[in-house]
Amino acid sequence: MKSPIAVHTDEDYEQAQQRLTELNAAPDSNDKERELEALAEAMLAFELRRDEAQE
Question: Residue 2's pLDDT is what?
Answer without folding.
Answer: 66
